[in-house]
Amino acid sequence: MAAVAGPGAAAMSDPEGIRSLAERCGAGERAALARAISVVEDRRPGFRKLLARVAGRGRRAHRTGITGPPGAGKSTLAAALAGHWRRDGEEVAIVAVDPTSPRSGGALLGDRVRMAPLQLDRGVFIRSMATRGAGGGLAEAVHDVIDLMEGSGFGRILLETVGVGQTELGVAAAADTVVLALTPEAGDEVQAMKAGLAEVADIFVVNKADRPGARALARQLRDAVGLGRRRAGHGGDSTAPGWVPPVLTAVATTDEGIDAVADAIEEHRRSLAGSGALEARRITRAEARIRAEVRAALEAHLGRVAGGDGFREAARNVAGGGATVYEAARRLLAGGSILSGGEDR
Amino acid sequence: MTTSHRRIRVLVAKPGLDGHDRGARVIVSAFRDAGFEVVYTGLHQTPEAIVEAALQEDADVVALSILSGAHMTLLPRVKALLVDAGLGDVLVTGGGIIPEEDAEALHAAGIGRLFGPGTRTGDAVAYIRDWFASSARASA
Hints:
The complex is a heterodimer. By secondary structure, chain A is of the alpha/beta class.
């Protein structure tokens, strides 16, 4: 995994640049993966071709999402899990998402502070991402970034993001297994979520379990999970049938309980794979992404054919008796291909 | 039509042994408020760890806060490791208590501007913006 050649300063818009970047990613070159992530995250020219060349390749990583309220110890938990998998000889990529400031557009990405033990391990790749324009807690490009990591040979991918309320659903959409981290102080939140809890997570971890209240919270969670389990899980038919989310306790700073969390993730993975639910999740995920991409293309097309003076000119024509409303509308719709917009759509 | 969302990415690190990160935290906030994406790596970073983080994060700029007096070894070391990693186009800049003549020597060794105590954060922001606008990384 040497980074000898470097990402190079050449513009990536040319097909040659994209092709060589993709090849270097596929060969596991870390600097190339880092640059590829930027190309995709920034939606730079050629990013779709890059994804087509790197993503997939028959490689399949297991994707674990770690979410929970601020201060739950998500980064520390992610680092501890990565350390566990490293001891098993697996290569781990981590995507840590933090919010973009809506006022400045900037972001403070501070998750590396808690991941210091991993920073010189060549079997670990950590990338911090800002949410940028996306509503909710997930960056728009996060799926693509995970695909690049998968295509670069990482077998374990951890997605870490703040989750409060709706944003857990975004994590669930991106991950195969969702771990919800809570602290003993989270009792009130649990009350508020109650029966909805089982729809949120596949595994619960009460972190910082050396603090008072950890056992009580774990008990509360188990009750709530039992209640909610009568209904389908968060992924609908893509949840492993019969899976009851375990409630575990951990102290991520000392690795206490981490083996059990890793075991639970592994068990969930096996349960998904054995029931066909893993494939169902992938299909659900792909469909949502295809729909989003088609919607974006249609909106861009509308902007092109009818943006600027498009509507106004057609209207003048109609008002002057040159066409009917329906003919004008059809002409606008037929004007240029939907596929002509993106440089490589 | 997809618009590009290029942002300036700055890695802020605190190498060496001193435990004061107030200055680093101030600059981190200023950079965020300027619209930069700031990766903060925390205290006691080795040059090797800083460069590996810069590589993984595809940082445009590495900004180091050094109060320990070890700037004459730390800054050139980070720069050399970046070059070794193929990241010679990354700007190395920083702040701390750094005598004028040291700053000049470091500049000759490829280090960017260094900001002393009392610097207005806006100056550092403007410096990075100007550097980025004329750098090869802006069009990469």
